[in-house]
Design brief:
By secondary structure, the protein is an alpha/beta fold. It contains 10 helices and 7 strands. The protein has 2 domains: about 1-30 and about 105-235, Rossmann fold (3-Layer(aba) Sandwich), CATH 3.40.50.1000; about 35-100, Orthogonal Bundle (DNA polymerase, domain 1). α1 (about 35-45) crosses α4 (about 80-100).
Length: about 240
């Protein structure tokens, strides 16, 4: 485990009990990023745009409309609303086809259930549209989350703090009472902008891309010991 010092502007004070854990979805709970890359690559190819793996991974968490506009701009295409809708439908269809064999990260369900049993509130904050998350997330797991903030439920996506601030509002909690688990630079920036302590998992990108997080670990299985440590020592 790689541990960083807590940023001075993070309200992670010794006297503040942890009440909720907020998870990103793609690349944190589910190993979906390779399928998102394939979907974007094949969607954009007819428009003369070659999306690189790193391009897609670094944009993880961003609203799909912004990603589409930025990708198309690489070939000097200014898309109409109709073109954006076609791109969205094509990307969703391709993603659905390839992601049928998608797996959840080892230990993800166990950790979610364990946290719920211990009385923590759970939230999911993702740039992925709700319709895709509902298709991928088993109902029994979906019910564990007290709050779900998806990409189609906010006006400004990651890296803007709105998604995580929305989660705080719906949870009825302060930033100091929560911990975020993220995997990408935009999500880390969003959580940090909302003032929440952020643990990054290096499941999609190497640690150097996650340097703005407060802590970096290898995967979701390493998150539970961090939460236990905070409960004992109040990070």
């Amino acid at each position: 485990m790689s541990k960083k010092s807590v940023s001075k502007n993070k309200p992670c004070s010794a006297g503040t009990p942890l009440k909720a854990v907020i998870f990103d979805f793609d690349g944190v709970i589910v190993d979906s990023m390779p399928y998102h890359f394939i979907a974007w690559f094949e969607t954009l190819r007819p428009y003369g745009v070659r999306a690189g793996c790193l391009d897609v991974y670094c944009r993880e968490g961003e609203r799909w409309e912004k990603s589409a506009r930025d990708f198309l701009a690489q070939n000097n295409i200014k898309p109409s609303r109709q073109l954006l809708e076609r791109v969205f439908r094509r990307r969703r269809r391709i993603f659905g086809r390839y992601s049928r064999g998608m797996r959840f990260f080892t230990g993800a369900f166990r950790i979610l259930r364990e946290l719920k049993m211990r009385g923590y509130k759970l939230a999911l904050v993702s740039g992925t549209p709700g319709i895709e998350i509902k298709r991928m997330l088993p109902a029994g797991i979906g019910r564990l989350f007290d709050v779900m903030v998806t990409g189609d439920k906010v006006r400004r996506g990651k890296p803007h703090p709105e998604p995580y601030k929305t989660a705080l509002r719906l949870l009825g909690l302060k930033a100091a009472e929560c911990l975020v688990v993220e995997n990408a630079p935009l999500g880390i920036a969003s959580a940090s902008g909302a003032g929440i302590f952020c643990v990054a998992v290096s499941t999609s990108l190497p640690a150097e891309y996650l340097s703005k997080a407060d802590m970096i670990v290898g995967g979701i299985s390493a998150v539970l010991p961090i939460i236990e440590s905070r409960s004992r020592r109040r990070l």
